[in-house]
């Protein structure tokens, strides 16, 4: 299968790294930014072509440009796209309806990935009206992490929680690390401890299926140090801050869409 990529920034290149792990795929990479594309090609292989060639030769095209660039990028390609190809857009807020107007006759997938896709630990939601496109998409994303199908109406929520979520988690890891440094740990020790703690705790949630509050209760002994910290987080509106961050991101997604 020839799999093309137009838009090889943070997200497009993360997806390309995951797709490169699939058997029997040839990668066609857009040469729009020769420096970025060349570096990626050196890492994962594939051919460098211009956008029109990628569109003409690919069986599947991943579109990784910014939402405001989607229409102009597709219009530039004009009549050149392969008629039978599947197009997969990762653009925040760009609906299947809008994509169908820009790419009439193509099977379409709208996806919402996050950057941990690059290391096979992503969280990707997707929606499509074509069962063939869904099957191809799932096959190509097999090495990307978790992939779930959702209704298109939930895409903004998925974007705010999982697409934007890594930034919120990094901020939490940074803050835990700062506290470690304040109390004498080296920066690298503190960040490693914070990151591994977040990773292990997240894996506990997924592996046990327990509600996070149950897992938290299991580590808060009466009158102990952990409950002292938990109360301080509550006092400072930690959970409300996280909920507000997701809601602000969701509102902004809707404005951008
Ligand atoms: N970053 C995330 O965590 C995330 C999560 C979910 C979804 N997304 C979605 O992923 C898409 C890309 O976001 P990003 O964060 O990866 O942005 P980005 O790093 O700016 O990547 C966009 C890339 O598109 C290239 N580009 C622009 N115009 C082009 C054209 N006409 N032809 C070919 N390539 C072109 C840009 O190259 P130049 O810079 O050289 O112009 C850039 O490398 C967006 O639609 C975003 O909504 C991102």
Automatic annotation (TrEMBL):
The gene is proC. NADP(+) binds at residues 6-11, 31. PROSITE patterns: P5CR. GO terms for biological process: L-proline biosynthetic process. It comes from the Bacteria. Its main location: cytoplasm. Residues 152-256 form the Pyrroline-5-carboxylate reductase dimerisation domain. Belongs to the pyrroline-5-carboxylate reductase family. GO terms for cellular component: cytoplasm. Catalyzes the reduction of 1-pyrroline-5-carboxylate (PCA) to L-proline. This is Pyrroline-5-carboxylate reductase. The keyword Cell wall biogenesis/degradation does not apply. NADPH binds at residue 51. GO terms for molecular function: pyrroline-5-carboxylate reductase activity. InterPro entries: 6-PGluconate_DH-like_C_sf, NAD(P)-bd_dom_sf, P5C_Rdtase_cat_N, P5CR-like_CS, P5CR_dimer, Pyrroline-COOH_reductase. It catalyses: L-proline + NADP(+) = (S)-1-pyrroline-5-carboxylate + NADPH + 2 H(+); L-proline + NAD(+) = (S)-1-pyrroline-5-carboxylate + NADH + 2 H(+). It comes from Lactobacillus delbrueckii. SUPFAM superfamilies: 6-phosphogluconate dehydrogenase C-terminal domain-like, NAD(P)-binding Rossmann-fold domains. Pathway: Amino-acid biosynthesis; L-proline biosynthesis; L-proline from L-glutamate 5-semialdehyde: step 1/1.
